[in-house]
């Protein structure tokens, strides 16, 4: 009976949305494979009600790894914790988020177990019982299909916002198994975390993103975009040109050397659409481009294009959205 396992991403003891998205895909594949089950691995402190919630979201069995070493995120300790749970659960497949944490952790886990890793996947199929993943390559210009060799588990990281979490089913129950780990000899330790800007969702989890480019001309003009973000409940992004100019922090950068995002709606404001920017956002479901140059490359991938001066268009859009959303 193949097990599709998910490595939960926890924040303050609660599972982040990517965990629920991965559970939904694991459930689908478990059903497709006939008699498959869904495992969930949680590393470190987890709120007491979380196990029940994760069962409602699709987990059949939860492996909760506990130990002092897992008090906060630390790559080496978490890789050891994951290894301990995987040795217990023995899943065929392990999904992890293609998030900052997942990208840090997945290669370490794969290397420790000497198994294959497909990163940043956006689709899975079962071909004669074999898992095949689809993933963007060449900065999103093409897609590749990859399969794993015989070593198990097959590890894949999944791009956030690719799959839709299941409707919670309160009749579902999961067995919880505790997996203890002892002290981990780590070569690095996390000295502390600093919270980045405001109450906005992280770019990789955001449903709506408003990004500004070189045309913002300075940090003060990003206020225009922050207003639009507030009205839409969106997260603020930026092109590298705006980040390199020092107008906004690098944590907002979208693209090849920034974050890869996958929102439902992406606003590209005063961004030309260089290939390195597209690498981070071209899989967005709806792209709205605002640019005064009608030949800007961004219009080639935009679902909606507004040719105009952002300093006129953005305040008008903000006003209209505010009015429409109040009604
Ligand atoms: C190795 C490497 C990695 C890179 N990684 C990234 C990355 O991760 N992310 C990234 O974004 N870039 C990245 N870049 C840089 C990338 O090549 C581009 O230089 C950058 O994306 C351009 O940013 P931009 O679109 O904001 O600026 P520009 O290309 O200068 O475009 C500005 C746009 O604003 C429009 N405009 C000007 N004024 C107005 C106005 N008033 N109203 C409306 N529109 C207006 C212009 O018509 C133009 O299209 C990378 C480059 C390299 C070489």
UniProtKB/TrEMBL annotation:
Cofactors (names): FAD
Domain (Electron transfer flavoprotein alpha/beta-subunit N-terminal): residue spans on this chain: 4-192
> Its Gene Ontology molecular function terms?
electron transfer activity; flavin adenine dinucleotide binding
Q: Which UniProt keywords apply?
A: FAD, Flavoprotein
Q: Which residues make up the binding site for FAD?
A: 214, 239-240, 253-257, 270-277, 291
**Which Gene Ontology terms describe the biological processes this protein takes part in?**
fatty acid beta-oxidation using acyl-CoA dehydrogenase
Top-level division of the source organism's lineage: Bacteria
Q: Which InterPro entries match?
A: DHS-like_NAD/FAD-binding_dom, ETF_a/b_N, ETF_a/FixB, ETF_alpha_N, ETF_asu_C, Rossmann-like_a/b/a_fold
Cofactor binding mode and count: Binds 1 FAD per dimer.
Q: Which Pfam families match?
A: ETF, ETF_alpha
Q: Which family does it belong to?
A: Belongs to the ETF alpha-subunit/FixB family.
Name of the protein:
Electron transfer flavoprotein subunit alpha/FixB family protein
Q: Which organism is it from?
A: Eiseniibacteriota bacterium
